[in-house]
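Following up on my earlier thread - several people asked me to post the actual chain instead of describing it. Fair enough. Here it is, all 272 residues.
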Amino acid sequence: MTRFVAGRIGFYTLIAVLLAFFTIPLLWLATAPFTSDPTYEVRMPDFTSENFQMIIDHPYALWSLVNSLVLAVGTAVLVVVLSALAAYALSRVRLPGRDALLYALLLLSSIITGTAAMVPLFQLAIELGLIDSQTGLILILSGGLLPAAIFMIKDFMDSTPKSYEESARVFGASPLQIVRHVVVPLVRPGLATIAVWTIANVWGNFLMPFLLLSDVEKQPAAVIMYTLYTEGGQANLKVLSTFGLLYSVPVVLMYLFVSKKYGFRFHGGIKR
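Reply from S.P.:
Thanks for posting it. Predicted structure:
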């Protein structure tokens, strides 16, 4: 009995330490933007709006959030559409070595990361005239995320009944009409999951935009945040904390919305 009680105490102590480890930074992020002289300590804010005015007066801060939104949404649309079409084909068409191809794509996308492939990607962007182009960056980011997205969405495609598609085919529906009107409504939770996953990856991506976008007016928030330091490398806590809060809010709201609507169910839309 004593050993059981000691074990439970140790377990709850560990949970409390882990919760404090993750909660304290979030409390700082929620309070520092409203403090007139923030430090690295968590303390009661005096609810000033001065820090937000500094962000508004910054020449690139707010616009960089728009750039991040353009890159994230553009990449998500491309990844969701292409991964859905590819996953549907791989799910329905029996090709020799299909599963081996799928796992090879996933393995290569994990091994050859954006950092490892930076030199050939940069050279390719130069040859295609995509340097300092948001469209070029969206294409490069989409290419890196597609293999894993196809692998994930294929499970949703496999769970949809083929009888629905056969019925639509009897009434003369084309393959694209079947995908749009039959398959997509059934796998919407999966598409939402892929969209959130893609946006989260692009929203926090620093290296690719930093190397491929030299025009500061086109750079996303992840890159602009790097400039919110003094020349001596010290963080401007007033601006950095406020910008960090604004930078975090869109992703949190997106997650809450999709989680409430779909619940991130990792199965198709048919209850068995």
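The longest helix spans residues 61-92. That should answer part of your original question.
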